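1st attempt posting a full record on here, be nice pls
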Amino acid sequence: MISVASPSRQRADTARWHTASQVLAQVHRNPGITRALLAQRLELTSGLATEITTRLRGLRLLAEAPAPVQGRGRPTTVLRPHPDGPMVLAVDLRQEDWRCAVAAIDGQLHDLRVRQHDSREPTAVLAAVRRGVEQGRARYGRRLRAVSLAVAGTIHDRHLVQASTLGWGPVDLSVVTEGGQLPFLLGNDATLAGVAEARTGAATTATTALHLIVEVGVGGTVTVDGRPMTGAHGAAGEYGHLPFGDRTRRCPCGARGCWDLDVDGRALARHLNEPTPADPRSYARQILARVNDNLHARQAVSAVAAALGAGVAGLVNLHDPDVVTLGGIGAPLRSAAAASFNTAYADGLMAFHRTQPPPVVDAAHGDKGALYGAAIVGLDHVTSEAALAQWAADLRHEQP
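the predicted structure (as tokens):
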């Protein structure tokens, strides 16, 4: 006869993991944090901090090492992921390639692998990603607790409904997780990059942050206290499809006048009277590389930087962020034509914003922003109260 715990007992078992979840969140946000600083931030007594970390060591969630001695005071320890602790597999699915890496409790990426698409057909791409997941399971076994995937496409109710840069319509991406044997988390790449900047990047001190990433078009998110505002169905942040552009142009998304078409490699090619590039991101990087030696390239970059600056101003007027972070080719584009960007940004701001405009800064995570964000969301799941309770139960079943 199978004994099933009552709902109240299940709730109690989950609730006891609340403080443990908070501890692991601190380790993630502050790699190398000491036990003493952890106790201070969570307002724990020294004895309680010791008790909790000892328990988490026994559950293979944390490891401790002596902290470097700094002046007087009682010695403390540095908290690190346990070498046999839980991990997530983060995947970033892009126009040209896909990348994957694993992350432990501290959120650092390991075993980074990059694979070019042999074909952009969904079945071929997803079969390749699935093989990557299978390899991760073979290597890490029970330690792998979730797959978190970032995709350059529109997410609606946790499903991909369109990836115009890949030429995809609705596609079921959950097939990469071997029939649902692992929890599957899905997010837009720009949204997840914004989460990474808010949690561990260039916007950690901001309450409200606006993140924009320019790759093939523009995406982004607004985060409040490190959490993205994704809308009713998860499709918020499609900033590139705001009508900031030329209304005579039809975007691949189906709308007219999308900002996307004025701020990426397609816009640069148009200003240079060149054909629309097959890979706008790589094309833009090539143009930026020769901007100092070519007048026409410089003029094209200046025009596109102005379009970017004006749109950023409009979004600042809308969201009132503390800071704006720029990722992808947005950062080098702004740097290459700073005067054009800054003039358009200032001119587009409402007067009261101009007195103290939100700073626009380069994203700290660079090209890996979406991958770090996918890892963060995966670790939020893995270190939730319910997931920790399941980890402990699985560990008990393993022991003789």
